[in-house]
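Risk mitigation, structural track. In case the binding assays with molybdate ion fail to produce interpretable data, a predicted complex structure has been prepared as a fallback.
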Amino acid sequence: MIPVSDCLSHVLTSATSLPLSTKIIPLLDSINSYSSADVSSSASHPPFRSSIVDGYALPSLDCSRVYAVDKGAKVYAGDDGSGGGVNNNSNSDMACVYVTTGAIVPDGYVAVVNVESCVVKDGGSSLTVSPAFSLPANNNIRPVGCDIPPDVRILRRGQRITPEVVGVLASIGEKEVEVFAQPRVGVVSTGNELVDVSSGEGLAGGKIYDANRYTLLGLVKEFGGEGVDFGIVCDSKESVGEALKKAMLECDVVITSGGVSMGEKDYLAPVMRELGVDIKFDRMYMKPGKPTTFGVGEIEGRKKLIFALPGNPVSAVVCARLLVEPALQVLMGRGVGGEGKGGGVGGGEEGVRVKGILVKGVKLDKIRPEYHRVIVRYGGGGSGGGFRASSTGAQRSSRLMSMVDGDGETSNGLALLPSAEEAGRRIIEDGEEVEILLTGKVLGVQEEKEEGGEDVTIIMVGGEGEKDVGRAKRVLEGGRDVFGFKAKTYIFALGEEGAVEAAIKSEELEWEGAGKLVLVVHFKKFCDKVVRRVGEMVEKRAENMEATIGRIGCGIMGGTFSFYELYCGSRGGMMLVCLGAGGEGRGEKEKWKKLLKEVKKIVKRPRDLIKEDGSGGSGGGGSR
Ligand SMILES: Nc1nc2c(c(=O)[nH]1)N[C@H]1C(S)=C(S)[C@@H](COP(=O)(O)OP(=O)(O)OC[C@H]3O[C@@H](n4cnc5c(N)ncnc54)[C@H](O)[C@@H]3O)O[C@H]1N2
Ligand code: MOO
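Fallback model:
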């Protein structure tokens, strides 16, 4: 597997080897393109001396005198300023003239006073300036060319054209601009399972809707390229080959998704080789997106960039952001202008990286560094400022909802997490600093929401019969009230083979946090069986925790509490606590609720206890 930075270098070097073409386009079409030439201003702005306020133009700077007002000589914005009997000779005895903001200040007038600072009398024919007004020369007058002087550079070759740039060009009368042509980017989805949502077809067995063409064409648009839709092709070497060739003929860049891992029908790499594509890398040392494959092809004497992205929807999006966006920027001429501060240089092709706090800790992938999707906010928090990132939850590469949470938020950053192997530990703690790659606009802190995800999972093991399971449900509901925290719950009958184990495993899979409590609650009479089953799932028994909970349990429950019902152990960063539930008898339920509250407090940060608890037995097998 190749480090992402090396993969990016391959992509940028390859992109730089493609020729750029230019075109002249209307201003509004040029937004987000890159200028292909330096542009100097061919005119001055403003082209005339212009008033900054609505007021009176004065022929002298003397504030102590009474001025005459020429009532017939008002100059509004857009008037040529020559009419209305204005005396164009510089003469301090000239009458004052009313002017509006943006109007020409006629020749001979040396300052403008805003209407609020003038006292106009005698039916509008005489004017004095408010006392204590100080009047410098050219007060409230913009001289010719003060905003855009003539013959100065206003746009650099390689500079991105923004609405503001377009505004500057329009100001000096340019209606078109020469830019580097947008690259044409063909997008192909591969996979027999895919159905185009616009086809109106329903989903028969084994089929899913094609999401990747939509995300990838959307991204190409966002990145400034011209997307070309090449549809879905089935998993056959011939179809994939034909589609790839067609897209290469018509486009500068081709993005495919699917068919790059180890499956018998993963044809992208062999087809690319057959088409003579020079594959630069086919495995990235990262998650998600490991099998991303990239190469440079040549067709009819023209070089093409081929990105074969993984089929998993999140992998495709993340890798498009990491690799395709910088490549398109190069092909759009970003930064060709060289050193200038506006020359598209700086910012780094890899995007903006910041240091920030990871609000809630997460598990690290054992082997691969992870681009963990987060919501990034700026400011607030206990520490009072800086960037704060919150995980978007389960990071499966099939789960696009890790980028769009359905609650109004879209992931706007990728936390760059090391692998557990690199970090020498399995988790990032709550509040640890991490590096974040920004992929969208950072949110303000006022939009900060409560961290998502459950605090605890409760697996309730009822008895053998329906009656017992019903009882378990009642107890559990009571428990949820008492906990007062978000709980995910499972209820099983004891007889359900493998159910508890499956629930624990699925929690482990789902869960991305750094410390999690899984409470396995059971009825006393079945404690042997439940404890044995949970014991088999535990990697390290936590006897210190058992002792602590046991002490508290005896205090609260008195004679009804027995250590025999209690078992604690860790699995990954999860703490599994097995507790025998009390009966429904008078007072007993309340005591039991109290105990659960205490347990919650004790295991609030289960990893602390896991760390402290060196006493763990060999784990597994419910070693009791
Ligand atoms: N034996 C191995 N299997 C896999 C490995 C591996 O190293 N060894 N890598 C896994 C990783 S990591 C990834 S990522 C995926 C990538 O697989 P492919 O690129 O070959 O993609 P497919 O198998 O075609 O699809 C994967 C997944 O994504 C769904 N998919 C595909 N295209 C679309 C689409 N356009 N819209 C929505 N969903 C799509 C597809 O149905 C699969 O579920 O391979 C792992 N396997
Ligand atoms: O690299 Mo794959 O994208 O982990 O799922």
